[in-house]
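Continuing the series of single-chain predictions for the mutant panel. This is the parent chain; the variants come on the following pages.
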Amino acid sequence: MASIFRPTVIRYVDKEGNRVTKSTPGAKRIREKSNTWRGRYIDAKGKERTVSLLTDKGLSQAKLAAIVQRVREEIAGVRRPDPYEVHREIPLLCPKCTGAGCKNDKDKAIPCEANHLTGFREHLEAKGNSKDYVSLIISRVRTVCSGCSFKVLDDLAAGRVAAWLKDQRAAGKGPQTSNHFVASLKTFGNWLYKDRRHPEHPFAHLTKVNAKVDVRCVRRVLSREELSRLVHAAEQGKPYRGLSGKDRAMLYVLASFTGLRVSELASLTEMSFVFSTTPPTVTIEAGYSKHRREDVLPLHPMLAAKLAEWLQERRARMDGRIAVKATGTKPNGSGKPCDDADRLFPGTWSERSSKMLRKDLEAARQFWLLELDELERDQYARTGFLQFKTSEGQADFHALRHTFITNLANSGVHPKLAKELARHSTITLTMDRYAHVGLADMNSALQMLPAMSELPTAVQSHTLTSDAPERVLVAPMVALETVQPGNTQEISLVLESPESSVSESEEPLIIRDLRASLRTLEKGPAAGVEPATPGLQNRWWLDSDKLWICRCG
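Parent structure:
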């Protein structure tokens, strides 16, 4: 049995008749019939289902009749049941909040109507992803669905997404932002396919664009002097979002010697460090690591010593704060209680980490310019030293990670080890994006090439005369193999006269083998060797490190 009906809906409008929320002052409650028809039927499993139809009654009846006919064919065994039918009518976004999250009159979150995006959010949260990551992915998928007018699964089309992304790039969005949308959509499509909500991956063939043609954010590497002055300026700086100057200085040193990300640094506690082992280590919990695995990294000996000293000084400061908190006042007499946190770098600095580093860079640059005289100050003020943004890129907080990896590469660390220390998925990411190479580095690499040796002097040949004997160089003394009978490799060279000879007892082993070969040649021609010239006798002698043979008449 099947039937169609129009459900009753409740709306709230203002005096002008515009639709408003229930909490709007002066809102009038209106009870009316929905414009869209609904259909009620019994499926092949005997369950009652309700399906949204159309605004036209006749077309709605025809659509419901087609659904009922399909159910009859499935019961009779004529048609195979569609496993995806139950998901086809479920909207992609909640019709009330379009995926942003429903709230009641008291601004508290309430469950949304059944939709695929809510299921996708629950899937991401169940995998242990961070809240920020889940919110970012959901926001991107919701933006694309709204921009492309995707309402149900059958609307999903990679071609419409590609056209929408093209319009976004034309409006000023960068190619990297476009690629982020593609990656999020692929994650969503992969979940739809694996969760048996869609027969295929709807975005499998959606490709990314070349982000290198328009890079919006290029980071530069801080030099050793820039980093030293930055740390010094931070030590003397005022607190920033709950982080003192000394703690910021230690934070910059730790970031540039470990390559830890902002979220990883903000999660560190005193229990994260172990100084009793060789080498000392720092542990990043899986919940804060980007690849969701626990990471144990070694520490540089200099960094470990500075950290131990800083932690001891921090304990003394924290003991003083706890004592002050017991009295309920601060040393400055403000009367406000002092919060105690287990994190080594507390506060909200991680939300504005780049702005924090930029302020410390500006302070370091001012200190540096004050050290110069007036003439030098005018000359060096135009340089990019300690500037946040230069022609090479910008020095935000993530640039400290670039500095760490670049220093590894410049120190001759094997690329495989650099990849493991950076905790990257591919070595290409480590070498291409994070390892920066400048003109000075390329010039230094060229200086490491070996010097070109002098070319050997060409041997001058002389014309033989009938009176001069023929002399042939058989082999140098540095030969590695003996000459076997019947094999000759001769380099013609003419000498005016032999100068010396050596007795057999003074012959090296290789010379004895050569002499034995010559005697064999004198006895008779071997296979592949022309007979000796009649009337000529072979004589040999040593000249420096060469064996000479003279054929004299």
